[in-house]
Amino acid sequence: MFAKLSILLFYLKLSPYRRFKVSVYILIILVIAYGLISTFYFLFACQPIEKFWDVTSWDEAYIDLAKFWYSSAAINSASDFLLLALPAFLL
């Protein structure tokens, strides 16, 4: 999340165009929201949290981690693509 935010903050200094800055701000909000949601989702994946360190009880206390990893990979790929495609509109 912080690497993407640093690139997006650099993008804000690239262009004086208002539309570009608005799209960068929207992407900043999306990256922060996704980063915080996924952090807390993974943090509270086990109920109670102490079961996270007990490997023998993962089946009974965990959320479905495969769905979490696949959705996380899809969202990260989409935000990476947007991050790379954004400066192309300046050209």
Short description:
The protein is built from four helices and no strands. It is mostly helical and 91 residues long.
Question: In total, how many beta strands?
Answer: 0
Q: What is the helix/strand order? A: HHHH
Q: What about the largest sheet?
A: none
Shape: elongated
**Helix-strand makeup class:** mainly alpha
- Our measurement of the CA-to-CA distance between the termini, rounded to an integer number of angstroms, reads 26 Å
Helix proportion of residues, in percent? over 70%
Strand content: under 5%
Mean pLDDT: 85
Written description of the protein model:
- With 91 residues, this protein is mainly alpha-helical.
- It has one domain (2-85).
- The chain has helices at 2-14, 18-43, 58-61, 65-85.
- Helix 1 packs antiparallel against helix 2 and helix 2 packs antiparallel against helix 4.
- The longest helix is centred in the middle third of the chain and has 26 residues, at 18-43.
- It is elongated and about 55 Å long.
- The mean pLDDT is 85.
